[in-house]
TrEMBL record, chains A, B:
InterPro entries: Nudix_hydrolase, NUDIX_hydrolase-like_dom_sf, NUDIX_hydrolase_CS, NUDIX_hydrolase_dom, WH-like_DNA-bd_sf, WH_DNA-bd_sf, WHD_NrtR. The keyword Hydrolase applies. Pfam families: NUDIX, WHD_NrtR. PANTHER family: ADP-RIBOSE PYROPHOSPHATASE, SLR1690 PROTEIN. This is NUDIX domain-containing protein. GO terms for molecular function: hydrolase activity.
Amino acid sequence: MLARRGRSPGAGPPGGYDKYAFEPFAVAVDLAVLTIRADALEVLLVERGQEPYAGHWALPGGFVLPAESAETAARRELAEETGLSDLSRLHLEQLRTYSDPGRDPRMRVVSVAFAALLPDPPEPHGGGDAAQARWQPYRTPGPLAFDHDRILADAHERVGAKLEYTCLATSFCPPEFTLGELRRVYETVWDTALDRPNFRRKVLATPGFVEPVPGAARLTGGRGKPAALYRAGGATALHPPLLRPPSEGRP
Amino acid sequence: MLARRGRSPGAGPPGGYDKYAFEPFAVAVDLAVLTIRADALEVLLVERGQEPYAGHWALPGGFVLPAESAETAARRELAEETGLSDLSRLHLEQLRTYSDPGRDPRMRVVSVAFAALLPDPPEPHGGGDAAQARWQPYRTPGPLAFDHDRILADAHERVGAKLEYTCLATSFCPPEFTLGELRRVYETVWDTALDRPNFRRKVLATPGFVEPVPGAARLTGGRGKPAALYRAGGATALHPPLLRPPSEGRP
DNA sequence: CCAAAAGTGTTAGGCCTACACCCATGA
DNA sequence: TCATGGGTGTAGGCCTAACACTTTTGG
């Protein structure tokens, strides 16, 4: 240790320049892909076909290839899992990196976790690795493989917090959406009810959050007055923030 | 690729279970250690003694050892760099992971970056690897090695944002501090002036942010009325948040 | 006495909450 | 005509920014 107390990466990789002389790390990505279907928060899960955790559900993910960044690997894995071709509107956000030495029993795996938001989710085609992929309600999954319960909880918390001070909610919506649909994103992720008039004013008062689609309207639930359509605006931050109503947990 | 489209880590590491059969990754940590000295934001930098970037300044850091988590590696590296023995009050926050394939010319290095806050920083003893370590004003560093300019900027932004809605500011302060010292933390990181009376009320109105030290008082600048002393309270979150005054950049 | 910093008071305005109310549509 | 969801208006309250003022210390 003393001989190589590392200044990253000044002192050189462990063992000097012999890349193969040390216990190797594998670098993976894990994806907490969230969507909203029928006013319920859902998450994309895959069933593992092999040990360890065979038969358990897990977050999709995979190993980073030698020439890829973690972001690139995440987009590739997601495209493979969902069969989605147009990932241009996909919001991909790096959550954090999980690096406990024992998190994978086979070898040392450091995993970069991402939260991803999808509108209009396609049905995933069951993976070719004897594992099926499926959207499942956020609450039900029960114990996931590895530390994926924790990653999923972190993703939910991060997304919930980001709704407060960014325009992230539009990433859950189709290209054109009503303010009711946008409000339902907040209500679903936060699991609270919001005052409709106040929400409307708040969103419209934030420059660049949404911009109206001229003349267009749509019936949301088959009933009621047709609602005006909006597109995501250019803004990315919300000032002032749209705070979650204080609940029992948060005073 | 198709043979091993990885479900993390369902499909197994690249190359199946032969850990040594693929181009290895190295996993490093980089630390943006911030402190406040004489009302100025400073960052801990090391001068590189070897190629690449020999003679350039860089963030301290090093490689994760086989049995360590990234957090453990970060604390170890920081203790080695600064010679600080008591890291119990140290706030260490994972920033994000930088994984561009070309970020280190020698081999594939994936780096987990941390932001760390230190009160009363010790003088670092220059490293044994022909590299010196030094506190430097945040603004001056000029181009750092690798992508460390970006990491440092991300750390500053993250810390600035966290001051708004957490009690993080007390991590910059000694165990007992005055409200003036706490306010100067905000003013230094945000580079703005805050209204003293309003800041005081805001802090005292947040339950658990600070708690008074009975009877104690201290002169801050050699002049003026002695200020009451406070300790960090048990709370971790700020509701409602203490928002940065809107500036030109943020409307 | 003066400067500097801590601490207290006060006031005006803004934002936000909580409603009440009207409009348009399908059943 | 009723239920449902969209859209508008408004009164009250809380929070905050802004600034005046007092207190306590060192020079």
